[in-house]
Structure prediction request, 300 residues.
Amino acid sequence: MRVERQERGPRARGRRGGGGAVLGLLVAAALVLSGVTGYVVGAATSAPSAAAAATPTPAATIVTPQPVTPTPTPTATDAGTNVPLDPDMAVDTETLAEGQAGRSDVNLASDDVQVLNWVETDDPVFFITIDDGLKQSPAVRDFVAANQIPVTAFLTEFAVRNHTEYFQEVTAYGGSIQNHSMVHGAFTDPETDVQWEICETQDRFEVQFGTRPWMLRPPYGAGPNDPQVLQYAQECGINRIVLWNVLVTDQNQVEYWDPPLRAGDIVLFHFGDGLEVGLEKILELGRQQGLTPASLEDYI
Ligand SMILES: [Zn+2]
Prediction:
């Protein structure tokens, strides 16, 4: 059975980044202000020589970074960080995947390709997926280990080819390494060699990580129901095309189709700076709803 879905990923991705730019500007402005203030204070109190004035190096008085670099703590009740996705992305009543235990025997014996954004289940669980692999933060690895988080990592081959051990460690708690293409080409772009993006990744990951992926997340969530994409996926051993319905942005804002976090939700992160903060936040949001992260691999 093939489940036809409209594309929703690109719009979700399109919302990323704006908050970071604003924050960056605020930080930059604050740094300038604190620098100016510091310099004025330094000049008034120490009567610097002409040379010192030309190169204002009273660094000790300039740097007071506390007020301008707020560490985003995971406060789940902070309404400002819970930004809903576009209204037209509201969850409807479609069932996309029936929760089922024992993925490997069931799914690997079947060459059906299903496209899903979340899992239909009554279990009090949600799913953590992390994409790309551009950064390999020890803090993330340690947080995942300390909390035994099952991570399904959708990796882009070019980003991870020299980091086998890191991603094996991050996915060692009930997770797995899955296909997010070779070089992150959009499958809807006529310039993209979709077959190569899907099938070459399958072959290389099987060698690099010792297991052949059975899930695919198209870059940008683009083209999951394209007949060509489905055909190449099926031919190369993919039987689940996994999108998402909750996005945690690189600024650790949580964007929902339909808040709050619900059973069966698939949460998308990216391997980037501060990811461990976002993970801590989603665990807390889950706790507030009575949910814990589970292995997506056990449900689809
Ligand atoms: Zn990606």
